[in-house]
Every structure is written in structure tokens, then in C-alpha cells.
Amino acid sequence: MKLEQTADGSYTLYVPELDEHYHSVKGALTESQHIFIEMGLKHSPVSEPHILEIGLGTGLNAFLTLLSAEETRRKVHYTGIERYPLAEETLKQLDYPHLIGKQHEEDYYAIHRAPWDTETAVSPWFTLHKIEGDFYPAFQPGGRQPFPPFPLYDIIYFDAFAPEKQPEMWEQSLFDTLYKVLNEGGILTTYCAKGVVRRMLQTAGFTVERLPLGKTRDTGQPSSIKLLGPKLMNGQVSPKTVKPLKILQIRHIHNCIFISNYHETFISWNQMLDSSYSFSTLR
């Protein structure tokens, strides 16, 4: 495993055996902040969300989530699954707290030093439950997690290695399970927009639609997107007539776009983005 600096100055890990990086080489910190925090956590309306991360890895997504929770005083319950935990020496080489602020160093290492298979209060605003192992044994009936878990998850960070590198993490049965454990109105955010992945999501029960989108190439400004679904009227929707929308956020290569619940939205883009795909999911 090799340490590599990405375009935004932050570091990622390269796995020669898989020919795969833990993050985008265009910016590890930028990618995590944009895909998982801006397009996931901050778009969830839930006041005290339960988050499931598939692929805890370097802990960068969890770290940024913790910092956001403390900044906004919004309590988060975080479950992270990781089959191959990283050594603390490797984490020190990545040195994410140095980029974000040395005052947060203890927060970052507290995530990695927390015990496995038990819920730990890392801070008053962030509780963490780490699961060492594979997704399947933990979330199948009779596994270590109640099935379905209670409460269900409001946000899922799907951050496994790419399908061609880790195909067992992109199987139909896994997406079937994710569909079951995600709350109505929940958000799933990931980085893979391959057609085979979209088809598996449809088979799991999601209605996946490609929408007109993208940052215009001539002006470089974000385009607007209208949601193909009902709008909230004065913040109210009758559950008898309108089913809540699930959001699937997908980044194509290093690009991401978001469709928000029930209303028109403008997209906040990072300069590195130049083309995107997005899909809404409706039960």
C-alpha cells in the first residue's frame, strides 16, 4: 500500500494489488466533502440521522461527518463497516487533521481507536458503531446486526472499491438488503454510475430515472434541475397519497450531482466537475 498526494493537496492510499485508490486522485478531501457531506448529510432533513457507511477505510467520511455534527449541533448515529482496518501508522501518514485543523486531531484518532462491535460516544454529537468484517454476515438474519436494523438508516454512504476491483460488494443481493434497511425518504450516496449498477438498483425495487442535468460547458455555471416528483405544500404531504422519495446520488468517474426532496434545486459544484449523472428513486 502506497501513500499518494491528490490534486487538492490531501493524501490517499494506492493498493497495487487492486490497482485502486481509496479516493479520487483529483482530491481525497474534496471528494469526501462533496459526495458524502454536501450531497448526503446536509441534504437529509432528519434531525438526528442514522448513517451507515459501507467501507469505513481511512475514516475520512466519518471524520468529516463528526465535524459537521459538532458544528451544527446535530446528533449523528454512525455505523461503519470495514473488513480491513488500517494501522494507526498509516493513518498518521495521511495526516488529515493537519489539513483540516490540528485542534481536531483527537477526534480523528478517537474514531479509529473506538472499540469494534459496540456503540461508542466519540463526542456528545457523534456516536459510532464500528463493525469489523463484511456487510453480508453483519446484516443478514442471524447476523451481528438486528435485521432489519432498528431504527433503519436515513443515509447510506456506499464507498466500496470499484465494481471491477471488488465485485462481491456490487451484487444484487447487497442492493436488495440496502433497499430494505434505508428509511423512506432516505439518501444513498455513492460514486459509481455504471449501467449494471443502475439495473441492479432497479431490480432491488428502486425506480431509477436519468434526468437532464449538468454544468454547462460554455458558462461553467451550474444548471438547474426540476425534480420529477411531487412538491411539498407548506411542508406537508399526505402519506396516504404521496410516498416519500428516496434519493440515489451517483458520481460518474469524479463527478456528482444531487436532486433534493420534493423541490427544485440548484446544484453546488466543485470546479473539478464537468459532467454528471443523477437518479431519483421512488418506492
Provide a quick synopsis of the model.
This protein has 283 residues and is of the alpha/beta class. It has helices at residues 28-38, 60-72, 88-94, 96-100, 105-113, 135-139, 172-181, 195-204, and strands at residues 2-5, 11-15, 20-21, 50-54, 76-82, 119-123, 126-132, 153-158, 182-190, 209-210, 224-225, 245-252, 255-256, 265-266, 279-282.
Notes on the structure:
The protein has eight helices and 15 strands. With 283 residues, the protein is an alpha/beta fold. Strands 4, 5, 6, 7, 8, 9, 10, 12, 13 and 15 form a ten-stranded mixed sheet that branches. Strands 1-2-3 form a three-stranded antiparallel sheet, covered by helices on one side. It starts with a strand and ends with a strand. A hairpin with a 4-residue loop joins β2 (11-15) and β3 (20-21).
Question: Any descriptors?
Answer:
ten-stranded mixed β-sheet; alpha/beta; 8 helices
> How far is it from the N-terminal to the C-terminal residue, by CA?
41 Å
Oligomer kind: single chain
Mean pLDDT: 74
Radius of gyration: 18 Å
Task: Please provide the ordered H/E string of secondary-structure elements.
Answer: EEEHEHEHHHEEHEHEHEEEEEE
Given the helix and strand composition, which structural class is it?
A: alpha/beta
Rough outline:
globular
Low-confidence stretches: 209-283
Q: Helical segment tally?
A: 8
The proportion of strand residues reads: 15-25%
Would you count the extended β strands for me? 15
Q: What about the largest sheet?
A: 10 strands, mixed
Helix content: 10-25%
